[in-house]
């Protein structure tokens, strides 16, 4: 393994953690907002889905799923570069 890859992998760990934190919060609070949007009380909260904002909600949901998929691939790359068998499931190479 090249040392540059190991350095890049270590430097990207805080970015990955921040990305997972943001994705978790968006999924949690976005999911709660969608529950309100489909509930009968949505008129009092003003978060109802309408024909004008439904495409945006669908696009945001697809974007979030894609972002989490990219972060999962990035995490696998970091684990491979740092040779973490507990995350990759591979045995250490000697």
Arithmetic mean of pLDDT: 72
Q: List segments where confidence is low: pLDDT < 50 over at least 5 consecutive residues.
A: none
Summarize the biggest pleated sheet. none
Summarize the amount of helix as a percent range.
over 70%
Amino-to-carboxy terminus distance: 11 Å
The beta-strand count equals 0
Structural class: mainly alpha
Note the beta-strand portion. Answer: under 5%
Identify the overall geometry: elongated
- Overall tally of structural domains: 1
Number of helices: 4
What is the succession of H and E elements? HHHH
Overall radius of gyration: 19 Å
Write the layout of secondary structure elements.
Layout lengths: L2 H36 L3 H4 L8 H29 L2 H4 L6
Helix pairs in contact: 1-3
Summarize the structure.
Helix content is 78%, strand content 0%. By secondary structure, the protein is an all-alpha fold.
Any overview of this molecule?
The N and C termini lie close together (11 Å). This protein has 94 residues and is an all-alpha fold. It is elongated and about 55 Å long. The protein has one domain. It is built from 4 helices and no strands. The model has no long low-confidence stretch (mean pLDDT 72).
For the structure shown, list the relevant keywords.
94 residues, mainly alpha, 0% strand
């Amino acid at each position: 393994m090249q040392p540059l890859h190991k350095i890049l992998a270590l430097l990207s760990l805080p970015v990955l953690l921040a990305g997972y934190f943001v994705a978790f919060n968006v999924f949690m609070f976005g999911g709660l907002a969608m529950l309100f949007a489909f509930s009968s009380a949505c008129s009092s909260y003003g978060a109802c889905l309408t024909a004008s904002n439904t495409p945006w909600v669908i696009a945001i949901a697809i974007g979030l799923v894609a972002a989490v998929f990219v972060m999962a691939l990035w995490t696998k790359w970091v684990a491979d570069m740092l040779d973490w068998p507990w995350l990759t499931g591979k045995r250490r190479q000697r």
